[in-house]
Amino acid sequence: MQWHEFIFSDKTKHRLFRHITFWLAWWIYFLLCYYLFQQPFPSDRIKPFYLTIGPPLTIKTFLLVLLYVIACYGLIYLLLPQIIKSKWLKAAAGIVLLCVFLFTASYFMYWDLFPWIDSLSGYHKVNDSLTRFWPAVSLGLLNFTKVAAAAAIIKYVKYWWLKQKESERLDREKINAELQLLKAQVHPDFLFKTLNNIYTHALAGSPRASGMLLKLSDLLSYML
Question: What are phi and psi of 213, to 5 degrees?
């Protein structure tokens, strides 16, 4: 598979591989971020390796990416067309519903689903009620903004590049058509000299005059 096919091909296998690569990269990114910056353990305990990078963290980041997948495709294929068509009311209502969905899903995942996943590994985290809404905002809205911005930029750059190539193709076809038209045109001097030659042969009573006139007629008929 060439890079051009990977990026621009509309074949199902290329599109599927392209999307899987995009989301796999984000999954690895969030996995590394949580491993480097998340501190789910008390400071007096050393993080066991199998609890930092292992099934719990892998499952949690996978669920986050799955949430972003659903929201991102909804944004790109449902909301962006409304924005492009200048249907601002529908677009605004859709964005509000999307934010509510992200916040609600992130809230449930962080405070209900993630503790249950951690409990399977023998770790129970004490949640702080003073920061109860911030994890949902951070996971559901701030992180999704990065993912959605990256997806939108990639889609826009791809759309712009295809439009540029289409414009270049049309310009080449226009130039080729004009060139073929110029080649098909008969220069006025050639036409006048041909008619003058036929006229001279006709005055002289040459039998070639009729044949020359017929060939000139065929040439002009072909051009028209």
Answer: -65, -40
CB–CB of 32/65 below 8 Å? no
DSSP string, 100-148: HHHHHHHHHIIIIIHHHHHHHTT------GGGSSHHHHIIIIIHHHHHH
Distance from C-alpha of 87 to C-alpha of 94, rounded to nearest angstrom: 11
The CA-based angle 181-184-190, given to 5 degrees, is 130
Condensed to tens digits (0 to 9), the pLDDT of residues 6-52 reads 676 777 787 888 889 999 999 998 888 877 765 444 444 445 444 45
- Of 66, 149, 142, 141, the C-alpha closest to 99 is 141
The ranges assigned to domains in the chain are: 3-174, 186-223
- The Cα 163–Cα 204 span in angstroms is 62
Tokens 């040439």 map to which residue?
A: 219
- Amino acid identity of residue 85, one-letter, is K
Instruction: Tell me, letter by letter, the H, E, C secondary structure of 56-97.
Output: HHHHHHHHHHHHHHHHHHHHHHHHHHHHHCCCHHHHHHHHHH
pLDDT digits (tens, 9 = 90+) for 161-171: 888 888 899 99
